[in-house]
Amino acid sequence: MFIRKAIIRNFNDALNLVKYTGASEKILQSLAYKGIHNSIIIHNMDNKALNILKQEALSIGADVAINKTISQFKYGSSNAVLFANNSQMIKLIAKLIPQPFGLHKFALQLNKILNDKIVFQCKRQCFYLDKPILMGVIQIADLKHNNNDLIERAIQFASLGINIIALKTNRKLCNLNHNIMQKLFSILRIIRKNINIPIAIEVYKYTTAKIALDEGADIIYDLFSLSKEKNKLAALIKQQQAGIILTSNSKIKKIQMQENADCIVSELYNFFLCKKNYAITHGITEQQIAIDILVDSVKNFVLLKDLKIFSSIGAVIGSFFNPYVVKRNNLKNNLIASLLIFLYGGNIIKVFNAKNAISILHYINILNQT
Fold it and tell me: Which residues constitute the domain of residue 52?
């Protein structure tokens, strides 16, 4: 006999574990619900409501971490954390629906968290992210890159089962050399003729974003890189039902100055939440939004373990860029980094070469079956 701890990221993982035991089909789903544990962070709830929530949670075997002053019946509001598995959440929701002090609304929010699946939708496809998908990144660093090599890499990515192709360059290079964008569009047109999977493209002007979408791009990096034209771009994305990837590059550099690891997560979460809310108010749906979490130093490795927190904002793209964290051309390091992103709850994993993609797909399939 031996024992080991299972890793459960979603309902399918829990269901597979229950099936592994040979349990009766009649109780498979009910047992799987008990296997998914949730930690729900509650901000500024009325203390009277928290008192009721605590008692109701305890009555069904769950619990709530609350401020010590609440037991003294102090007025005001406090933060709390609810700990419950899915089965307990279902019971708790039923108990809270008729309760006062805003608990009815809280129950509806709990129900949304329980039943919502993470979805990423763009023009060409809708991804249900119960399992992670892969994004093949093609970096266009200068005009010396052979177009045929870049196109061949994209076609190879698609043939391996990569779900999204990302064509990337950088702002400084585009500002210095207009021909880079022409090269990017030329490659985009040929790739679109040869493959039918979504293509993401990095742009820095409204005009280039419009050309990219008209030429067959499905996803745009990033609405907020166009500070003066973001309203027009938001309207364009809404009209064409394109996907949008919100990035953290500029914010990461600023929050690296933080000493407190919790501040890093909190500040970046609020940063993305503001971006998301702006997009939503301009008609872009939650399903069209993904966020790119850049783990580029040992200091903000804390972001890795908290990737799941960000999934309430949009599909999470996990990536390592800094060569001190992972060298792009080092297969072993890329594999380890990608599997870490997978294990900590990333929905979309970046890959940079075919060998890397084959290995990651292989190990992810193994982990999904265990």
Answer: 24-115
